[in-house]
Amino acid sequence: MSSSDDSYLLDRTNATETARLNAQHEGYITALGYHIHPAILAAHPPTAALKVAEVGTGTAIFLQDLAAAHPSWTLHGFDISDAAYPPPVARPTSLALHLHDAKTPFPAEWHGVFDVVHMRLLTVAMGAREDWTRVARHAAQLLRPGGALQWCESNYNPTFLRTAAARAEDAGVTLRMQEVFDGLYHVLGPAMAGVYEPFTGEAVVVKGALRAAGLQRVWDDVVSSDRDIETRGKFARVNTAVGVNLLKKMRGEDALSAQDLERIEQETASGLYTRFDVHMCIGWKP
């Protein structure tokens, strides 16, 4: 069953949203070039049977990828809702999924169990600044000594670019796609202000949360979302869909007209796309 305290802003039960989440996953993995950061893998023998947890697992697509690539690994996913979980018959035997709200402590039975904890794109589930540190602290409890936590977030301040194939006249300052994101920031800004801060210095939200949770050697691996030329268009559609769906959720279905949606599709098809920084923040448990 799903928790009544689910803070996810989109519809988990919608098949379209599940497909979008899985496509978004592919985009992030392509941009990063890995599932588990190479520095984390290098700390273990190549044949090690790792224990990996994902907090905020969503559709569990990340863990399903790991199960296919590493059959000997033990994988556990946690989320406040099971609405997007694959059915039990579709889950690999090495994968177990559980209900848990990451803003509350994990049961003691899970403490010190995992070699790696993965978290990604939890922004829309966060409220106060303290939530970031609270979630990081609870996730860090899952790690064994020497284990690593990796937390992937984006700067959510996209630049709107055009490929060589896009026409200059399609890049006007009144682009509907850009207006969608500007409207989204206006609606969500107060709750998500901390995420918009630059990922530099000691005030970084995620890295600061990892340090506050007691993790050491905290740093971030930064890549551009458009690093892979072949997937720029697909990734643009996925991320624009997030903006469209969130804006409708916050302002109602009439926030965007059919004409608006058609123009956004035309802009994307013409070669316009969004670019943003992807940060994989990593910390190690002493």
Automatic annotation (TrEMBL):
It comes from the Eukaryota. Residues 54-149 form the Methyltransferase type domain. This is Methyltransferase type 12 domain-containing protein. Gene3D superfamilies: Vaccinia Virus protein VP39 (3.40.50.150). InterPro entries: Methyltransf_12, SAM-dependent_MTases_sf. It comes from Carpinus fangiana. CDD domains: AdoMet_MTases.
